[in-house]
Amino acid sequence: MDISALELYLVTDRGLSCGRPLVEVVQEAVKGGVTMVQLREKEASSREFYELAVELKKLLLPWQIPLIINDRLDIALACDAEGLHIGQSDLPYPVARHLLGKNKIIGLSVENLRDVRQANDWEVDYIGISPVFGTSTKTDTAPPVGLEGVRRLTKESVHPAVGIGGINLSNARQLIEAGAKGVSVVSAIMSAPSPREAAEQIRNELRKARQ
Asked: Which of 98, 62, 97, 104 lies closest to 79, judged by CA?
């Protein structure tokens, strides 16, 4: 996997799109500089999830932007997505890798040093440190690790890391300075009046952190 794809990682949430079609929001965000997209659908039926995934893959293909499916290995396989993102309570990584194959991207959420050390034994493509800051987007998460936690976990990890949870224009740059290779953003782009402008602004901040 090209690590640069992790830089500005959009995680979708239709409930935060202010009534706009999901594909429309993602398209605008991609125009603004999003480098990877994770389709996360907790409420959709399998049929609806699959159809959305196929539509997003068609949209992202010309941009060569990877489509990652959250949790659902069956959907990832059915739409031939570029990868899968799993959490600590989802399908075990070794099983997911066996079924998905060597050439697909697999990301794993981590919340503490124990999770990171376990991930170090596996050939995951990236880890998602979650949550970095407090967020209302997901309510079933561990306490926020903060920037100090990001520093500690990225130093311990043999894999590139992205931070997720409460990340927006005001703090995205700090994640890169703390050792993350990218940021996962949800509401700061999904709910923005202009997803394109929001993505552009965050991407510019990330570039400043690398100068």
From this structure: 104
- What span, in angstroms and rounded, lies between the C-alpha atoms of 158 and 123? 10
The catalytic residue among 31, 138, 151, 191 is: 138
For 6, list phi and psi in degrees, rounded to 5: -80, -10
How far is the C-alpha of 40 from the C-alpha of 190, rounded, in Å?
12
Q: Is residue 151 among the annotated active site residues?
A: no
pTM of the predicted model as reported, rounded to 2 decimal places = 0.96
pLDDT digits (tens, 9 = 90+) for 63-94: 999 999 999 999 999 999 999 999 999 999 99
Whole-number Å distance between alpha carbons of 2 and 109: 19
Which residues partner with 70 through β-bridges? 85
Q: Annotated catalytic, 173?
A: no
